[in-house]
User: Fold these one by one.
Assistant:
Number 1:
Amino acid sequence: MIPKDLRDRLGIVPGDEVEFALEESGDAVRVEPVRDHPTLRGSLAGLGLVAELEADHRSEARR
């Protein structure tokens, strides 16, 4: 269990995910809350990748 004062400082509540990492010194543990990462969905839109993939597929099918 993570002590309440540390949870408060880290801004985590019961049920939040955290990651534990051993410090390089080997005698301390770092606790970090797992934060949601922004979605990458749609970040490649407009680059014409689907058309390029379809053209590649047609080219392969002709061989």
Number 2:
Amino acid sequence: MNIVIIGTGYVGLVTGSCFSEMGINVSCVDTDKIKIQKLNNGIIPIYEPGLEELVKKNYKAKRLNFTTDLKNCLKNEVKIIFIAVETPPDKFGNADLHSILSVARTIGENINNYVLVVIKSTVPVGTSRDIKIIIQNELDNRRVNILFDVAVNPEFLKEGSAIKDFMSPDRIVIGVENGTARKIIDKLYKPFTLNCYRMIYTDIFSAEMIKYATNAMLATRISFMNDIANLCSLVGADIDMVRSGIGFDSRIGTKFLYPGCGYGGSCFSKDIKALIQIGKKSGYSMQILQAVENVNKKQKTILFDKLIRIFKNDLKGKIITLWGLSFKPNTNDIREAPSLAIINLLLKKGVILQVYDPVAMNEVKKKFGNELRYFENMYDAVNDASALLLLTEWKEFRLPCFKLLKKMMRHAIILDGRNIYDKKEMQLNGFTYIHI
């Protein structure tokens, strides 16, 4: 089977690599010539555990190839076209659909046989209908009668475990219109469903909504717990005990109940903004999601607020260390990361910032350049620091040598944005310890 995947971002590259691992011939297409050139040279543009090995293996086996020439790809006997281009938010929070609609036009201009067009990008409800209309209009302009179908297959990949998520999915959601499309999808995903992983077939509009609703629910749980954690700090309750107490309720469960310094990444904020705008266009106010977004925006500054109180607003010239810059562990993605909000606030206060992250420092350097001091070692980064802020819960931060930290720091102050340390232990080690 030959398939084309348009877009070599996070979703497209993981999808293409995993399909090729199952013996499918995959052509990954992107308009970014430099990115395609790097991929053809074995240089992976994103950090994701296991991805580089998978790409190189299947590229070498000639099951996976990269190109900028979509028109040429469509000349081949392509059975399925996946659209996995980005849909970033515009200034109002709406999903920007220019790229995906442009791709639809190109497909309509160039297909020569039946294809199933599968939308993998996160798009507002109704976008699949628009894509179908655009493709059909282009076929009509060409005066050709070529059949095609459109399906929606939202992705649920977690950065840091995307390969596992794709290879062993907890569910595969497919929005289809007819039996022909369903048979093709069944065949494509059969290698991933041999162990009875769940296939969920829906109508197309519902599939488009499922992606947004999933991310909205997860973000809501995070913001809810952050709100409760902030209240706990005022009334004297322990948020970890509260989390355990509610998490063992079978109606609630334990996942996404961890308080922290705010969520980030490419999905939650973008999708919540888009869902709010979808509501507005439909004449409905998404009040809960507006609150979720407001809570998260404030949560990203909570460690800064605590630091201000500790030093009584006198931060100018002080050295502050940040451990963790990516929005979560096992990725170099800094989009919407709490670290960006913290860095901007601290720089305005005249702070000397020393930072360390296992994989995301190059991404931060692109944004802040020489405004920060970058270190290749977590301990070197705390030298002479007045305080250490932990923003990402990388494994190597879990059991540091506290004796060495205390010796190297000017003041033994740690602000833990992910609650990974034990308060009593930190106090016994002589640290002023502030957590969420």
Number 3:
Amino acid sequence: MENVKQLLAVRRQKLQKLIEMGVDPFPNKCKRTHKIKTLLDNQKEYVNKQQKVIITGRLDAMRRQGKVGFGNVSDESSRIQIFVKYDIVGEVNYEVFKLLDLGDFIQVDGECFVTKMGEYSVKAKQVTILGKSLRPLPTVKEKVVDGKVQRYDEFSDIELRYRKRYMDLLLNPQNKMNFELRAKIIREIRTFLDSRGYLEVETPVLQPLYGGAFARPFITYHNTLDIDLYLRIAVELYLKRLLVGGFEKVYEIGKNFRNEGMDRNHNPEFTLLELYQAYANYNDMMDLTEDMVIHIAKSIFGTDTINFQDQEISLAKPWRRASILDLIEEETGFDASDFDFEKIKAFCKKNEITIYPTAGPGKLIEEIFKEFVEAKLIQPTFVIDFPKEVSPLAKEKPGNPNLVERFELFIYGNEYGNAFTEINDPIDQRERLEAQMKLRELGDTEANLIDEDFLEALEYGMPPTGGLGIGVDRLVMLFTENTSIKEVILFPQMKPEA
């Protein structure tokens, strides 16, 4: 700790010396003519051509011997060596160079040349400090193995990487790629939906009532209105209002917030894609989901086959479609299609599946599915026709009052999407939400509320509708081969340090 304090003190002393020399360590402006990669990719155009180049970046290596110094400067595109000589930059500027530390941001004006050692470099005519680093960066060492540079002693503590993501990105450039890929995935989602005539919209994050999912909300308070408001848990009920208002295809990619547990698949703040299409049902949503995920894979990777945890995943159509009841019977031999509550409870007790006080047969069927089936769904599978009890916003399946037209998409044992043939009967919808309120009275804090404004909107008429929700964070996890959601969220929520 004492050593660290000394290092911090030395850097501040150098900062003070620069100020005393009349040098601004944090100037308001700078100039750049070339990204470093441009110079590296076009060496013949710049070497010994006396063409002025100006680069900017972070100083990540430096060595001096007498009146000659070398360093490495990195920007987001690449890294290049700089050559600084007293006789060229002059006494004052060389003194500035001597006061630099690793981590400082600098501007180098000069020309490209090749050193006697054969190193392509920028010969500095002027070195300008752009931002003084007052803390030393963790040391990252490099070695050459089989002709390739390998980095070791990295900033590799997982929890520290999440807490100080800026350091993770700086010292582990391979992790930066996750977020570059995330941006590409979101861009391709928009490209795909826009090309199919969907309109991107924005709906309230602060809502007077929350709904559209089974979850506990975060609650806040508005001083002027003197009311509690909720951070949204889903965008569903607002997007459906837009269909009542005459839009036929809408989508939103946005943050949702759920006051629930955290694990490798859940963060309290997450990104969700929700879309709604008039005159469609859950079969249309399955077709759309297949096409969209394949579009993303082919656009970014050029293939519809990906690898995840050493398992080859084929995204080629058609994906399997199987009912939740059939999948349970396949894995366990247990037939729950009669919804016999006592029989289902007995099966759960025998297999040590928790039976919650508010659970009916439909809820228990869902728990059996989670216990015995989910983890075995490796290749893309649409699990269809869920119990009505756990799907208060989905339309009943014709001919079976216990089931609804709903699917969940599973790949490698993880859920990626949830979709319904949406209820457009306001009387049916009210009855479902009233049933949810009874569950709340019995202690189910995640049951849906009655949203009278939404029900009123439905009474004006909503067309037959297919709706789909896809977890964007989980989709990024799939394409980047990550098993923790924290790896694909720049600043995940963390428990405070003790």
